[in-house]
Design a protein that fits this description.
Length: 289
Amino acid sequence: MSRSAMKKADLVSLATDLGIDTNGMLKHDIDSKIMERLAEDPTQYSEDPRFQPFLSPTKRRRTTRRSPGPDSDVKHSPELESDSDVSASGKGSEGIEHTAEEGADKILAVLQAWGDSALDAFWDSIDYAIGGAHWVRARLSTVCMITTLSILLELGLVLRALIPFDQRVRLGDAYTIRNAPDLSVLQSCLSFWRPLLAYLAAAVVVPSFVGYFINFKAEAPRKNRRKSDARAEGRAIDPLVFAITKVVLLHLALTTRAISVHTDLLKSAVGDIPYGSAVVGILLALYTN
């Protein structure tokens, strides 16, 4: 079997016998590693038929027959000449058939190599897709990501309550957009910016500040640590303290006027979502500690 006709599984088997680690390698990489290993000691595997396609063929010695000289006593008869002509014609037809068979084998080998390459590319893409899915799962399965998503959900509901969607916008003579946002409310400090900043302070700023300084997960300072390590340790915010502080402040903002005078507006916007997200955040923080 030629090298191009070999499948990836065959190359993996040969590489394993040679002591080559093939994890994460493509077909052509495995082929190159096998060639490099055999080039180091070709005589050790020269008798193994499995490695013959990777070893350079030895030059065959050509033997030449000495043709009879002009003074030779060999006599040529017509019968011998006719037999030689017949055998020559037979050998010519056999040579043509052998050449056709070799051409067909080469075409089949090329097609099989293309098919193996396409199959290897397909499985490589599957491996990359699975690796990407694992990366996304690892990023989503964190307390920080769950907390961020809950804050974005609450912020979207607050913005939906603060910005009225009652405008009609005409696009030419044929199209009209109904229920477009009225962005003129952004100019109002009383009806837009004050409740929005009150929510951000109660849901993000103050809990982050408290979770930074009251941090049960922060490591004790070590001697001879690098500045980059010190900065990385200083960025940590305790998710448990963050969730508890957030739910307490939002409870005050939704039930009293201690934080904002727009209590009814915020409560109608987010409802009981902050309580549910706080419970989830506290449970996840306790689970991951």
